[in-house]
Structures are given as structure tokens and as C-alpha cells.
Amino acid sequence: MAGADPKWQKDAADQNFDYMFKLLIIGNSSVGKTSFLFRYADDSFTSAFVSTVGIDFKVKTVFRHDKRVKLQIWVRK
């Protein structure tokens, strides 16, 4: 995929982890669920409002207590 961040591709496809958690964020419309997702997973923020249609999904790998933890984060309207 041209222009894609190789680190993101590695994190999304990487099966080498100690723990995996699937997180589902649900709530009312326009409260910031998707903004939270992008801020946490990508450290990015946009002030433009775009309503989520369906589901947004991100993968983030974090390290805690010498363990590799893979987070699958889903946002549903």
C-alpha cells in the first residue's frame, strides 16, 4: 500500500504478543468516541465533525510490565 506507515502495517498484522484485548466503545452520537479512538491510537485529532457510519477500528500495541499487549479498539455509534 503506497504511503502507508510500515509500523502500522506491522502492528495490525503482528501475531507476536503476550495479551490481546478487544475494546468496544459505544455511546450517544457526537460525544467524541471516534475522536478518542484516533487520539489514542494515532495521536491525531481533527476538529472536523464526520459522523461514524458503521464501525471504526484501530489496532495499537502497547508494552506494560515487560509484556506486549495488542489492543483492538472498535467504535460503534
From TrEMBL:
Transmembrane feature ranges: none
Superkingdom: Eukaryota
Any GO MF annotation of the entry: GTP binding
UniProt cross-references to InterPro entries, sorted A to Z: P-loop_NTPase (IPR027417), Small_GTPase (IPR001806), Small_GTPase_Rab (IPR050305)
Keywords per UniProt: GTP-binding, Lipoprotein, Nucleotide-binding, Prenylation
Family membership: Belongs to the small GTPase superfamily. Rab family.
Protein name in UniProt: Uncharacterized protein
Organism per entry: Dendroctonus ponderosae (Mountain pine beetle)
